[in-house]
Amino acid sequence: MSYRILNVGRLRQAAAGVASAGAGIGLYYMYLSRVAHADSGAPKQVFGSGPAFLSLQLESTEVVNHNTKRLCFKLPEADSVSGLSLTYEPGVLEFLVKQYPNGKQSSYLHSLKPGDTLRFIMPIRGYKWQPNEHPEIMLVAGGAGITPAFQLIQGILRNPDDHTKIRLVFGVNTDADILLKKEFDEYEAKFPGRFKAVYAVSHPEVEENKEYYKNLVMN
Q1: Structure confidence by residue, pLDDT tens digits, 137-162
Q2: Which of 203, 55, 162 is nearest to 118 (CA)?
Q3: Which of 11, 15, 28, 66 sits between 20 and 30 A of 126, alpha carbons compared?
């Protein structure tokens, strides 16, 4: 069986483009969506090809693990969409942010509270995916690099006209660093034969854990 292997580092470069107060590294994001239905007409895209110069209000935060938070921002209008590729429903813009030691940008984002606003001045570009371009792909992601891969996985599986099969290899340091496992488990149950996630953990809590491979994935 042959796979088309996609470089998640390139996915992340395609997905990057957010500027906020402070400089530094450590922002990785995913787009999730909340169901909202426009009365008529095409939904308005918030982010286009040029600078946005847009402030969004933080609606909620959620602690995901010891160094990662989920930040949910309101879009300007109930029927507006982000404009990212591979997303189909209007609603909110969500970020999964990993905080790095001495990371100014990630620390600033972790300090935000509901009601605070974040100013976006750069375009947000999604990965350019062509449905059914490959019958089967393999995604290899390490650590926080899972988020652009997740955006691609969502886009493929939510498109009823896209029949691409996906195998994900996700490498992390410890069990606690496995992000989005609930979502991946749900996709495996909902799309048997089309989606499979394999986890490589460098330092597993239980050495004989058959659910994870003990290995190292360099992203």
Answers
A1: 999 999 888 988 998 999 999 999 99
A2: 55
A3: 66
